[in-house]
Design goal:
Helix 2 crosses helix 3. Strand 3 and strand 4 form a beta hairpin. This protein is α+β, with helices and mostly antiparallel strands.
Length: 136
């Protein structure tokens, strides 16, 4: 995989260096997030979400990468306060190595909701609520 932009992008995420993220993203990049049903489209929209993520989390760690020709699975661990999630970012790069698509998949659900509640006002989306129902 052409990691010319993917690895520096991940390095910038780890360092919370949001000012340099844009140079690694295709202008028409698409970010599919577990927070909202519709994807964020375009470099500006994706940078806004990533800046909010970096501002709202305490830890962002890549724990593994599986790379193919133009696609990589980035295994992550993210912590915000007491909430922690693990997940995979399905990243696709274009011919120039810039990231053209990211699909985020996290678990567990309670951690996703806790982090989403913290980030929702920063991204401008409604906060989710996890409702646990007792067994019948």
């Amino acid at each position: 995989m052409n990691m010319i932009h993917a690895q520096p992008f991940l390095d910038a995420m780890h360092a919370k260096a949001s000012a340099t993220l844009g140079e690694h993203l295709d202008p028409d990049v698409i970010l599919s997030s577990p927070f909202v049903p519709e994807p964020f489209v375009g470099r500006d929209a994706v940078i806004r979400v990533l800046k909010a993520l970096l501002a709202g989390v305490d830890e962002f760690e890549t724990v593994g990468i599986i790379a193919g020709e133009n696609r990589a699975a980035i295994m992550l661990r993210i912590r915000a306060g007491e909430a922690e999630v693990t997940g995979v970012d399905d990243m696709i790069v274009g011919a120039d190595g810039r990231i053209i698509s990211m699909t985020v998949q996290w678990r567990p659900l309670a951690g996703i909701v806790a982090i989403q509640q913290k980030l929702a006002p920063l991204v401008g989306v409604p906060a989710l609520e996890l409702v646990e129902k007792g067994s019948a």
